[in-house]
Design a protein that fits this description.
- Strands 2-4-3-1-5-6-7 form a 7-stranded mixed sheet, sandwiched between helices.
- 23% of the residues are buried.
- By secondary structure, it is α+β, with helices and mostly antiparallel strands.
- The termini are far apart.
- The longest helix has 22 residues.
- The mean pLDDT is 79.
Length: 263
Amino acid sequence: MKSLDFDFLRVSFTDVVDIILVALIIYYIYNLIKNTLAVNLLLGMVIILVIHWVVKALNMELLSTIINQFMNVGIIALIVIFQPEIRRFLLLIGKNTFLQQNKAWWGYLFGSKNIEQNNLIRIKPIIDACKSMKKSRTGALIVFVKFYDDQLFANSCEIIDSKISKRLLESIFQKYSPLHDGAVVIAENKIKSASCILPLTDNDKLPPQFGLRHRAGIGVSETTDAVAVIISEETGEIAYAKQGRVRMNVSFGELEKLLNKDF
């Protein structure tokens, strides 16, 4: 009697690591594209692959040739179609590296013990402005970026390049200000620009009460490493957008913690 060979069931340590890494990549990709149009694009590509296998099995030469031509440029098409998601994926990897996650410890070890305290001092004018605008129900969109992208922001904004102050933020978003209809971008501890036109999110699962401010705040957090603070003109409620997700009804205590962590 012929014995059964179960060698293929043996799993080495390398195989386990391989499986875990693939699972992590799939998990991150799923988190990046869920609730976006990229899901529909990916589904469309899967359907094309299934059709390709079917027509190949049925020896349908003409249709198979047409699909083959499409498949030949598949990698280039993937890069073009999923460019925002690829950018976000790379930003996510860089943001979650050991050095980035532990930069506070590195700062402490090298003598920068007052970083958090100094950061809270920088954040205070922003928190104070948000309190005032929430009370007066002044609509606002404030975007925080680590690196100011001239190509993304400067072409559609008015350059300010000024020290952060409560009164300046309130003046920009005041209803009759010529700069109020757009976003303020803060980077390098300065108000870099105002009245910025930002890309809107493609997410079609957002609540219907979300206006252009919310959609622009979520949109810029999807395509860059920016975070956005949104104040609703209708309700005065504060929302916080990061990595394409939005946190509603943020208190001032929560806002201070979030900005201290991300800004």
